[in-house]
């Protein structure tokens, strides 16, 4: 094999190495950008999950609130039941703290 052929192959190999090096650098930058995107999307998912949870609670509250009959007698009875439940909860909390 002649010296000129070796030089040509070496130059070809050198160009291929530079091409691969450029692709590697480009892929590393793309990877970092994708990791940042994933992180931002994960934060958004977490925020949306919290919002969904709060909306479910609000929905349940509204569902219960609209199911309460409008008659004054039933409203008074429900108020008494709620007051009794609150007293029971307070009593339980006091027992737990004792």
Task: Write a compact overview of the structure shown.
By secondary structure, the chain is an all-alpha fold.
What does this structure look like?
It is a single chain. With 98 residues, the chain is mainly α. It has 2 domains: 55 residues; 29 residues. Helices cover 93% and strands 0% of the residues. The chain is rod-shaped and about 110 Å long.
Short key terms for the protein model shown above:
rod-shaped, 0% strand, 2 domains, 98 residues, 2 helices, mainly alpha
Strand content: under 5%
Class inferred from helices and paired strands: mainly alpha
Based on CA inertia axes, which overall geometry fits? Answer: rod-shaped
Amino-to-carboxy terminus distance: 95 Å
- What is the alpha-carbon Rg in Å? 35 Å
Put simply, the count of helices is 2
Could you give the topology of this structure?
Blueprint: H1 3-67, H2 72-97
């Amino acid at each position: 094999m002649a010296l000129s052929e070796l030089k040509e192959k070496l130059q070809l190999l050198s160009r291929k190495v530079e091409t691969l090096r450029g692709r590697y650098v480009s892929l590393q930058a793309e990877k970092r950008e994708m990791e940042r995107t994933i992180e931002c999307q994960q934060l958004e998912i977490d925020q949306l999950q919290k919002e969904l949870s709060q909306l479910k609670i609000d929905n349940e509250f509204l569902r219960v609130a609209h199911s309460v009959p409008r008659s004054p007698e039933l409203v008074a009875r429900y108020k008494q039941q709620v007051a009794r439940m609150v007293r029971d909860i307070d009593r339980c909390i006091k027992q737990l703290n004792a």
